[in-house]
Amino acid sequence: MDTRLLSEVVRRVFSKPTTRRYPKERRIVPKDFRGRVSWNKDTCIFCMLCAVNCPTNAIRINREKKTWSIDIGKCIHCGRCHDVCPTKPKSVYNTDKFELSDYDKGGFKLEFKK
Amino acid sequence: MHEYVLPFGPQHPALLEPLHIKLKVEGETIVGSDISLGYNHKGIEKSFENRWWAKGMYLSERVCGICGHFHTSTFAQGIENMLGLEVPERANYIRVLIGELERIHSHMLALGVVAYEMGLDTLFHYIFRDRELVMDLQELLTGNRVHFCMNVIGGVRKDINMENTRRVEENLEKIEERCHHYIKLFKNDATVKRRTQHVGFLSKQKAKELTPVGPNIRASGMDYDVRETGYFAYKYMNFKPITGEGGDVLERCVVRFKECIDSVRMVRKCLLEMPKGKVKVNVPPVVKIKEGLETVSRTEAPRGELIYYLKSAGDKPYRVKIRTPTYQTFHILGHILNGYEIPDVPVIIASIDPCISCADRMTVVDAGTNNERIVTMKEARERRK
Amino acid sequence: MIEILFQMLVFPGLAAAFAIGFLYQGIERKVSAHAHHRIGPPVWQPFMDWVKLMSKENIKPKHGIGFLMTLCPIISFASLLTVILFIPIGNFVLFSFTGSLFVVIYFLVMYSVFYAFAGFASGNPFGYVGGIREIMQIVSYEFPFIVSLLTIGFLTNFRVVPFLSLEFPFALFAFLAGVLGKLCLPPFHIPEAEQEIVAGHLTEYSGPRLAMFGLAKAIGFWVLVSLGAVYFLGASSLISFFAHSLLILAVLIIIRTLFARLRISQAFRLYWFVIGPLAVIDLVRVIVGFY
Prior knowledge:
The structure holds three protein chains of three kinds. Chain A is an alpha+beta fold.
């Protein structure tokens, strides 16, 4: 009679569950985590490379009005915009924000102004 | 004996993805089956034709959730062949490292699903808890738990941070110990043995005829594994395919666990022996390949051999054809289900590890006569005219 | 008169069966969730499920027999509720006479038979397979279950009274195996096999009908655990009754987390050729007088 599972089950019943009680306990994401995209407003030169290279066309940049907008519904968090940015330090980067849900689809189109 | 037809799917609590099997049953014994796929068709092969090569990399990752890295590796390998690019050695090692980590997490998912289909929720939760160790490693090294986006044309997009080596080694030790524990459990536990031994038997002779790929054919005694050809950095890994003789569900599960243990060995070897150097070759954002050039690229995904056929039309592909391993393996169900009982059906289906997102073809149903047939791409193009 | 009504409707009758049955089911879900590393639903979740299901629409499938589909849950629920009146809990017992054991056995079997019949009445191939499996399961586990009850019956004049039966471990073992079969707990959760036949014989049931089956199963927990506590562990006062009930419940929960599902042919063989003979050994011991 194999008792491997039995000893583990009895041990587990009396120990703490491994479920994290979100939202009371939040998770710390690692350093390279690819969250929501954001721009550094001072170093951006408006070359539009990030908008052209986005695989899903989620980024729209307006040179005259100096606005950047990202459509969170379309962004796939791949990080390609960060790779092709020519400035040093890079002007577009992934933050660690991952709580991006909204009650209304219009809330997915975020816009930043200089 | 009364014969009736039991429909299995497309909506079923046991299935993770929609598929349809009409089982012909007598009492509780299966005497025949009729399989049809096509519920998950996404039109990805057509979407490739509108995008640049570099953007196509991200699309190919999303063909499948749990073998995404292998899809991008194969795609990148094909493009690099066509361009004649030489990828740096460090990038090859990193591709193998991330690939083997993905193999571990994919196999553990498949094994957890087999445990669930047997009715043992406890083992399902334990295997998935251990799978979280691998997911944490993947997030630490690449930034995301699935869909890593690590491959670019010409190498890997960023380097592995060697400060993380200690954490990687801790988790790998735990995973290896748990895999040994699970092998003993599957072989010795009373009810698990009763549900998996001598079920879904595929003999070596039949496996040669039907040619499934991946651990399914290796569990029937044939050692067919694309990693033996030594692409990327596998030539330095001392790799030997892992085979088993049983041919039943138990043997397939044990072969998968043994492959996990072997993957742990390979990850450790990669971390130790990785040469220093660059991780990618400089490639312009819009890659131009000579028109009409074609290539075939193969790798060993967790489920078996994955083949990409690419034909170029300048800066975009003219045609991308993906032959996923599940498409090659799925038809053996028509043979290994016969003679077993209804309770064995979900266990056998889960043991061949189907990934229906990968294997999709278009089916035309004639509403007038209720006949079904599969349409080839040529016929669909002609109908559109 | 007032006392009879109190026992039938409040304790240990309708209200207690309702509350404590759902409580036992909730405890079972919570403890097995902790065994799986997770937190699990709150303890009153089965009650909330019942309330939600009672408020839903009653759908009649096209090939089902509506009248029978409504009758089966009601008879299952009613027969189990009747059993509780024969079991002495502390000082409460409504009916206790020589031969009351046979009435208990009869009503317990009636619950299972109508549970199986529900599958056939729904007109669905999954219901058909589930119904056949439930009947096969009844044929399998009733043998050791009834033999174990008769073993103790010989010693108590076939009357349900508190009796401590630790000299007959095989009878207790066969009783627990029978309880696992009757309540469809692993390794015998075969008729409602979610992975194979959607929901088995309950596939076409929704709304109030499914709620009544859920209530019947919860009352089944209360009845069978009480029967075990009184008849095999000899609980005579209220405190010892609840202590022994929780002990039996703990054993059932631990067994429940350990085993995979058996095929119906394997379950049949296990009951008839392994558990059954063990129960018969104890029965023969009692009849011959060797204890």
